[in-house]
Amino acid sequence: MITKTSFQGKLTKTKDLFIPFVVAGDPTPELTIEFALRLQEAGADVLELGVPYSDPLADGPTIQRAAKRALDSGMSLRKAIELVPQLRKRGVEIPVVIFTYYNPVMQLGHDEFFAMLSENGAEGVLVPDLPFEESEDFRKQAEENDVEFISLVAPNSDQRIQRIAEKAKGFLYCVSTLGVTGERNEMSKEVLTFIEKVKEYSPVPVAVGFGISTNEHVKLVRGHADGVIIGSKIIRLIENELDGLEKEQTAALDRFTKELHELVK
Amino acid sequence: MLQVFPDVKGRFGDFGGKYVPETLMGPLQELEDALNEAMDDPQFIEEYHHVLEEYGGRPTALSFAGQLTKQLDGAKIYLKREDLNHTGAHKLNNAIGQALLAKRMGKEKIIAETGAGQHGVASATVAAKFGLACKVFMGEEDIRRQELNVFRMKLLGAEVIPVSSGNGTLKDATNEAIRYWVANCEDHFYLIGSVVGPHPYPKMVRNFQRVIGDESKRQFLEVEDRLPNRIYACVGGGSNAMGMFYPFLEDDAELVGVEAAGKGIDTPEHAATLSKGTPGVIHGSLTYLMQDENGQITEPYSISAGLDYPGIGPEHAQLFQSKRVRYEAVTDQEALDALKLLTETEGIIPAIESAHALAQAFKEAGGMDKEDTILINLSGRGDKDMATLMQRLEEEV
Hints:
The complex is a heterodimer of chains A (265) and B (397). With 265 residues, chain A is α/β, with parallel strands linked by helices.
């Protein structure tokens, strides 16, 4: 039973959520803004803004390549957070979740990190290598700063599911399959049983990510979960247009938008 | 009495822990439970020691380096001969322990990462011995530098998987091994080669390597009737050093860990993690590492593929912070000079890794009293480094 949503009141619904992921600065900070606008137009409810990292343990090759492009464009955790007010200025209104590995946060310092999130208007944070046991202080600090700390559960979380789900904020990220991020040909039906189990305990919408690559996957997950999270497939759509983005930007962005609509229709 | 590390959360003071994707939390708990159970089982411990002896060649010798002692004209120098282990390095001790644990857990497939190839060879060896399938992740640059070990692994039946990301060295191979494990954790055992990674790896690897220090202590007391004044070991991830130091932590012996200063710690090309790094998270553990101001991990450099790692075991980070161990750094050239000196005076060609420990010990030996004693952990033999040595030293030979 979903009893609350939040993101400072900006998440307006609890069902049928579309949560896309892009890497800040891939291939440039300016284009990240363009993609965010197109994603919002296509119905995105929350934007996961990924911070590129040199050693991303939870990510597959597609997101690793995106991170490399973004690092080459000079992106950093600080700059990614500072991109949020620029997104707002251009018309992105949906909640923004900063998706970052822990080490960059640790170097910035927790206090500075949360101060920056507040100052720049980011509503959430997701740290894939900060599991429940390591995140107690961090979660507390997120709460004090009115920032949603997004928790993850995996198919092998077993007895941990209840403990993690009960403390979930914003939305609960259900990792659909063992493995790293990346497109998959098939989505296992077992994921549906897993989603049902997670929904029993979660006070917030349950969104499913990892491997969602086709409209069929989207439809399958939508029938059971409260939302879909799509990362690698969107990165791939961006990657397919890298040449076009340099030479004929508007046409390339339009092609991206068309593909995106096909994916989430 | 020293505090016992790690604590229940896998922390060594401020360091250690489990900084991994949620998918690995279950498998790490499963490993921890199995490890604790195994370490409390006298039969498991007996089997581990039995294999170390009748297959691995333990105990390894403690050799007095008489010629060297005479030449340096200072403290008496002893070498703990981990180079005499089957496969030529200390890595086998840990690989045997973890392979036995994998079997006990019913896992038939192991994965490993390797830099210099010694851990890859040790893993491939125990896989062959115990009938396990084995995949070894290795950076492309290391594959180039360590051609001979790559061939050995393949001959032993292991699959060597080249990793091209980053600099194509140990850091990148480790990332890839972890990613593979995330996807295949249900039936694969990840055999980590050093005292690094998320809890319980640093503790487990230390416990499988402490045989070096335990044995050294017994042997030293036998020949000298006292403990050494100083003990030296090289530190990349830090498993040979941790194995040697751990049993001595409560004694008076001065412990010295030696990192790779590469082309100099004031240049960008080194792997001196404690000397120049800062605290952060790498490969699932909070420790010291080399990184830029934005928290991106930077590429290390050392002539030795085995020391070419930007992190270090979290227990070393704690020992560094508490000052129980002194950490120094020596350059490629100093290590090569020490390697030549040992080879020419004692007829032992050490691994370039081990030559780092030798170099620091040689620097200090002359200034010590003749009644003092030094113990150096000779972590591995130099055969695998011949291509590098030929390139660097052929004109001098």
